[in-house]
Write a structure and sequence with these properties.
This protein has 14 helices and 3 strands. The protein is globular. A 3-stranded antiparallel beta sheet has the order 1-2-3, with no helix packed on it. By secondary structure, it is mainly α.
Length: about 325
């Protein structure tokens, strides 16, 4: 079964179930999904090696952050992951299309806390946005008695973000105030907003299938995540890359990832060696596929939600 170790870890959490008045135990969805989101962030940053990204070996193409920065950021964001779930859970009478303002309030506080903890370094802004949408959708679905599997989560996100690009990008007529706005004006790239509005097609069409295939064929968690990150890099219109290295840099990232993936009979050791070589090349060219890293964490989270939505149910108190 997928993610046996993760489920064992969650089942050991004394807060995973909470008692009800009738003597039964109810799944604490905020603890479940919030802890999974936190674990996803920690898995992503500790995955080593990665090309151009912070990992256990080096800081990739980044000079203002390292592993300790990401760990500190993840730790302070952990309660906000639960708060996103709670925001969705506490809005059962709100339509999915109206969830975003509730989640945005949590996101603004989460981003401020992150920047305070990292002394102004943006470690997880994109991650906060994507994890917030997923966690909020889970809470909303669970409160309504609907399965919180990945495809239902996707449907909620698509409704929630249906007008995001029009409202936040296409309506801009003045000088852009963010990198995302500038890249939209210069290249027409919609970035993470476009991904959210379409229900994260890069995850559902490429990342999630790649991860589940790798696990199904017996790959280790590390190997599955490494392959999935390469798949995401080969497909994602990563605005983090474009911001640093232009469209030529994005093309280079995609081609490099595809080249590694197309290598036949690639052992895990050889895979790591190729990623390490690509890491050096990315560092030299100041390339960091941070957008794909965010999608990797979200991919893992959604894969676990697919299992938990089937395995973890309310139970009798013992």
């Amino acid at each position: 079964m997928l993610a046996n170790r993760t489920l064992d870890w969650l089942m050991d959490d004394c807060c995973l179930y909470e008692p009800k008045e009738d003597g039964e135990s109810k799944l604490n969805i905020c603890v479940l999904a919030g802890n999974l989101a936190y674990h996803a962030m920690m898995l992503e940053v500790h995955l080593t090696p990665k090309a151009g990204l912070v990992d256990c070996t080096n800081s990739g193409a980044h000079q203002d952050m390292n592993l300790a920065t990401f760990v500190k950021s993840s730790n302070v964001l952990r309660p906000y992951m639960k708060a996103f779930v709670r925001a969705g859970y506490q809005a059962p009478n709100t339509l999915a299309r109206d969830l975003l303002p509730r989640l945005r309030k949590v996101g603004v506080s989460a981003e401020k806390t992150m920047l305070d903890a990292t002394q102004g370094v943006n470690t997880h802004k994109g991650m906060i946005f994507t994890m917030g949408l997923i966690c909020g959708a889970v809470g909303w679905l669970y409160r309504k008695g609907i399965s919180y599997d990945s495809h239902r989560v996707r449907a909620v996100i698509k409704e929630c973000c249906a007008t995001l690009v029009n409202e936040q990008l296409r309506s801009i007529h003045l000088t852009p105030s963010t990198t995302g706005e500038r890249l939209y004006q210069e290249y027409g790239l919609t970035g993470i907003r476009g991904e959210a509005q379409k229900g994260y097609p890069t995850i559902f069409e490429y990342g999630l299938p790649a991860y589940t295939r790798a696990i199904a064929k017996g790959s280790s968690e590390e190997r599955a995540l490494s392959e999935t990150l390469l798949v995401l890099m080969s497909r994602n219109q990563d605005t983090n890359v474009v911001n640093r290295a232009g469209l030529a840099g994005l093309k280079y990232v995609k081609q490099s990832a595809k080249q590694i993936l197309s290598t036949p009979n690639l052992s895990h050791k050889k895979l790591e060696q190729q990623i390490e070589a690509l890491d050096l090349a990315f560092i030299e060219q100041n390339i960091s596929p941070g957008g794909s890293a965010d999608l990797l964490a979200a991919t893992w989270l959604l894969a676990q939600l697919d299992i938990c939505s089937q395995v973890l149910i309310n139970k009798q108190a013992t």
